[in-house]
Design brief:
The complex is a heterodimer of chains A (388) and B (214). Chain A has 388 residues and is an alpha+beta fold. Helices cover 54% and strands 17% of the residues of chain A. Chain A has helices spanning 3-13, 15-53, 66-71, 81-88, 152-155, 197-204, 224-235, 245-287, 289-297, 302-339, 351-368, 370-377, 381-386; strands at residues 57-61, 78-79, 95-110, 116-124, 147-150, 164-167, 173-181, 192-196, 209-210, 212-217, 239-243. A nine-stranded mixed beta sheet of chain A has the order 6-7-5-8-4-3-10-1-11. In chain A, strands 2-9 form a two-stranded antiparallel sheet. Chain A is elongated and about 110 Å long. With 214 residues, chain B is α/β, with parallel strands linked by helices. Chain B has a six-stranded mixed beta sheet, sandwiched between helices. A four-stranded antiparallel beta sheet of chain B has the order 2-1-4-5, covered by helices on one side. The radius of gyration of chain B is 17 Å and the shape is globular. The model of chain B has no long low-confidence stretch (mean pLDDT 90). Classes of the chains: A alpha+beta (388), B alpha/beta (214). The A-B interface holds A 1-2, 6, 9-10, 12-14, 290-291, 293-294, 296-302, 381-382, 385-388 and B 45-46, 49, 52, 54-55, 74-75, 78-83, 85, 87, 89-91, 93, 95-98, 102, 105-108, 110, 112, 161.
Chain lengths: 388, 214
């Protein structure tokens, strides 16, 4: 009789103990896979939330007074090629999603009814691709030439279907198609209008100029902001980097939240399940001491007996790992719907995790059965077989 | 074939020292039927397990065909048990999750000679029980299953520890006729029993009392 048949027969005979061991693997695998899948979903969610919140690093001309920047119609501008130069630099890798912006207050915009308002104009350059870093989906405003996106407060003053008109620095009235009316509650853009950069430069007579670069510094809390500052200033000594810490904090906290849960829960549940498994295998060995004694008397080798116990752990670990993977994915998908607004539909089975599940769980459960298996090899056959 | 020279074995339980075997010397030749009797605790089972390579004696030498059993490495001693010995026990020790055929094929060393199993099942009146589990068998059927398991690999020596201890008279007779048939076919038997009932079949009989031969 081959060892696998013997293992399977014993496994099905002692159904309750086998089922409990299997259950421990399934629980451990389900929790691990679910947390892992949810943490991946959380990262994606964070990315999308951050996309909504905007970029967290602002690069200004050195010495820019931010009070002036937000309140005065114009502050120090710099060439828009700076963005391309930063993007082309091999040494500039601390930030991503470089977007050149021209942002100015326009104190005297006349709405179609003839009323005058102070609004903010934003001109967005297409996001610069960093040639020496892996490609990523863009995050910035994507405003087509000849079109504008209206902030909610500005949009109230223009009827649906009408164009947006504005007087340029040369006195010419320019008209733009309204591509989008933005929802309210989006900050300064509520009272502003977003242009394609070249359109706004033309309106303001500031060809080739921007006054801000927005970017995303991925993990600013760990000191990368310093790195970003150093890297920017090494290339352009006339620029400086400012961090919008609330966005950075939100991003960081969101990213770490699931990781924290995972870092605590996965080892805790894994160790608990392994401990229970170890005890169940110990109990299994105690119950089977005569069987094992008999096998020894029949000339089965120590390695054969070891294999019989560990083989059982391997089979249960493998089955539990597979079931746990799908159960974990189901749990992640089920609860993901409740937790993640943007990425819930994108929660898909992580097949690389499946590979780890079918390798890791059998290995860990074999490890949990190792001491009981060693004890089995030490059973005194003469003693157990002569017991009445 | 089997030779024990001045074998002694003591067990220590707490502060008490119990002498299981004291200076035992014995020779069992091929085809012999060695019958070991004595009261409970006389050391009969210990003697059997010393021959079986399962209890290391404190002193003395146990040899099989001139080779010291306890000087063998673990691989050789496993092979000695697998190829040369068949064990039978009072408690049968059948695997509860294997059928009669499964329990027998457990001793087939990798191969399952179904014809041979069938032959012994018929001989031991177990043909219709081949797919039954031990829990579905009578004690006599269990012991006959254990007997087939012990001899299916055609070992040279059958070591039987109180094989009739749990059987009634008729089942004991059936089993002993099978053991005798194995012996008549050239197999060597070392059988341990606390009573003298089957001593008549033995070519050699020894009695142990408090670990010593009488």
């Amino acid at each position: 009789m081959n060892p696998i048949t013997l293992i399977l027969k014993e496994l099905f005979y002692r159904k309750v103990s086998s089922m409990i061991i299997l259950l421990t693997v399934i629980i451990a695998a389900t929790v691990s896979v679910a947390i892992f899948t949810l943490s991946k979903a959380s990262e994606n969610e964070t990315r999308k939330i951050m996309r909504e919140q905007g970029l967290n690093l602002y690069i200004f001309p050195k010495g820019t007074n931010l009070i002036d920047f937000y309140s005065v119609s114009n502050t120090g501008a710099f060439p828009e090629e700076y963005v391309d130069k930063l993007a082309e630099s091999r040494t500039f890798d601390a930030v991503r999603h470089l977007t050149g912006i021209l942002q100015v207050r326009y104190p005297d915009w006349t709405d179609p009814n003839g009323s005058s308002h102070q609004i903010v104009l934003f001109g967005y350059k297409d996001e610069a691709m960093q040639r020496f870093l892996p490609a990523q989906e863009t995050m910035g405003f994507d405003v087509e030439k000849g079109k504008v996106h209206l902030g909610s407060l500005v949009a109230r003053n223009i009827r649906e279907g009408d164009p947006f008109t504005i007087k340029g620095s040369d006195g010419t009235i320019r008209s733009f198609e309204i591509a989008k009316r933005l929802d309210e509650g989006r900050g300064m853009i509520d009272q502003g209008v977003a242009f394609n950069l070249s359109d706004l430069q033309e309106v303001l007579g500031m060809q080739g100029k921007i006054n801000k670069i927005e970017a995303l510094g991925c993990v600013c809390k760990d000191g990368r902001i310093k790195n970003a500052r150093n890297q920017v200033q090494a290339i352009f000594s006339d620029l400086e980097v400012t961090e919008i810490s609330s966005i950075a904090d939100a991003r960081e906290n969101q990213r770490l939240m699931m990781n924290k849960y995972g870092a605590f829960l996965i080892p805790f549940i894994m160790l608990s399940c392994l401990l229970i498994t170890g005890l169940l295998f110990y109990q299994n060995i105690t119950v089977r001491n005569r069987e094992i004694g008999l096998l020894k008397a029949m000339g089965r080798s120590t390695s054969g007996i070891l294999l019989m116990i560990i083989g059982k752990a391997f089979i249960l670990g493998l089955i539990g790992g597979i079931i746990g993977f799908f159960a974990g994915h189901f749990v992640a998908e089920y609860f993901g719907k409740e937790i993640f607004r943007f990425t819930a539909p994108d929660i898909k089975p992580l097949w690389n995790v499946f590979f780890y599940s079918i390798v890791l769980f059998p290995l860990l459960w074999m490890l949990a059965s190792w001491i009981p298996a060693l004890m089995a090899t030490q059973i005194d056959a003469a003693k157990t077989l002569s017991q009445e | 074939m089997i030779e024990l020279k001045n074998i002694s074995k003591e067990y220590v339980k707490g502060k008490e020292v119990f002498t299981a075997l004291k200076d035992i010397s014995l020779k069992v030749g091929k085809g012999d039927f060695c019958y070991v009797t004595g009261p409970s605790g006389a050391g009969k089972s210990t003697l059997l397990y010393v021959i079986g390579g399962l209890i290391h004696p404190d002193s003395g030498v146990a040899t099989y065909n001139g080779r010291d059993i306890y000087s063998m490495n673990s691989r050789d001693i496993n092979q000695y048990r697998r190829k040369n010995l068949g064990f039978m026990f009072q408690q049968f020790h059948l695997m509860p999750y294997l059928t009669v055929a499964g329990n027998i094929s457990l001793a087939c060393n990798g191969k399952s000679p179904s014809e041979k199993i069938e032959y012994y099942l018929q001989k031991c009146l177990l043909s219709d029980k081949r797919n039954k589990y031990p829990s579905e068998l009578s004690v006599g059927e269990k012991q006959r299953t254990a007997f087939i398991r012990a001899i299916i690999s055609e070992p040279e020596i059958l070591l039987a520890d109180e094989p009739t201890g749990n059987l009634d008279q008729s089942n004991s007779d059936v089993l002993m006729s099978l053991v005798r048939e194995y012996n008549d076919g050239g197999g060597t038997v070392v059988m341990v029993s606390h009573n003298h009932e089957f001593e008549k079949y033995a070519t050699e009989s020894i009695e142990l009392r408090q670990g010593s031969m009488q």
